Amino acid sequence: MNKKFLALLSMAFPIASCAQQLNNAQDQHSITEIEKSETLETTVSNETSPKNNWGAKIKASNFHLGLDLQTKYVWRGMEMMVDESSPVLFPCINYSWKGLYVYTMGGYAINGKYAEVDLGLSYSWKGLTIGFNDYYYPTISGKDDEYLGGKHNGHWLEASLTYAPENIPLWLTVSNFFAGDDDVYDDASGKKKQAYSTYIEAGTYYDFLDNNRISLAVGMTPYKSCYTNYQKKFAVCNLDLKYTYNVQFKNGWALPLSAEYIYNPAFDKSYINFVANFAF
Q: Can you tell me the distance from the alpha carbon of 271 to that of 237, in angstroms, rounded to the nearest whole number?
């Protein structure tokens, strides 16, 4: 009996060994098939990934469009259209990538009595933003204007620095016109002198649900500048109280609407402005 048991046992080991080898072979075959399937899926995925006409993989665009409407164009406390005032439209295209922001924007009065073309470049890092802007103001007729020269220059070149801490509801902006048409001063020889008009603004805000916000800004100029028509030295030229309400749509898009009360102590002028910001 022992001999029979040993004989059966000696037969069982090869059978078990064969079964294990078969299972291992089947497992290896399954792994190989899975790898082939994954490779095929990757190949098909790469082949079917949408590409643009340049052969690059299609991705979300960093370009954006905007259109702002202002019922009264007031900027840094200055009324930009004193005569024949009308609502102004601001079409804009911009590019943003990480902290880089590049834009071009126009400003056109509905009655055709005002025009503006702006270019800007800025970079933001940890709440600090440095920027350069070119504000171009053509004449109303525009017949004798040349963008890069001519009798009417129309360009105001500005450098700006803004600090807005992420966890503190404050911002501080300092901007200066370092070149361009900000040259109304006459020196001793009667030649035009750059005014280097400077604007300093401090502000705070309070947030509500749905990104609704109320904000208060105070702007000033430290010496004679375009913000006071080159008449006064230090002056507070802008007090701006604004409330922004975001109209929420079901698709996730929001339309910011703002109403603001603006008072300019330097000229003792007050304004009410309504702004709609369309961003795409």
A: 13
Task: Specify the pairing of strand 185-186 against strand 170-180.
Answer: unpaired
Q: 109 near 88, Cβ under 8 Å?
A: yes
pLDDT tens digits along 97-107: 999 999 999 99
pTM equals 0.79
Q: Dump pLDDT digits (tens) for 8-24.
A: 334 343 434 434 443 45
Count other C-beta atoms under 10 Å from residue 274's C-beta. 13
User: Of all residues in the chain, what percent are helix, strand and coil, respectively (each to 5)?
Assistant: 20, 50, 30
Amino acid at 127: G
| DSSP one-letter code for 223 | S
The 10 Å Cβ neighbour count of residue 137 is: 19
pLDDT of residue 192: 77
Classified as helix, coil or strand, 35 is helix
d(CA 133, CA 135): 6
- Which residues 6+ apart lie within 8 Å of 238 measured at CB? 76, 77, 201, 217, 218, 219, 220, 227, 262, 264
Which residues are registered as beta bridge partners of 206?
214
| Residue 168 reports pLDDT greater than 90 | yes
CB atoms within 10 A of CB 156: 20
Q: What is the pLDDT of residues 31-55, one digit of tens each?
A: 455 455 555 454 444 556 789 889 8
Question: Cα(29)–Cα(109) distance, rounded to whole angstroms?
Answer: 74
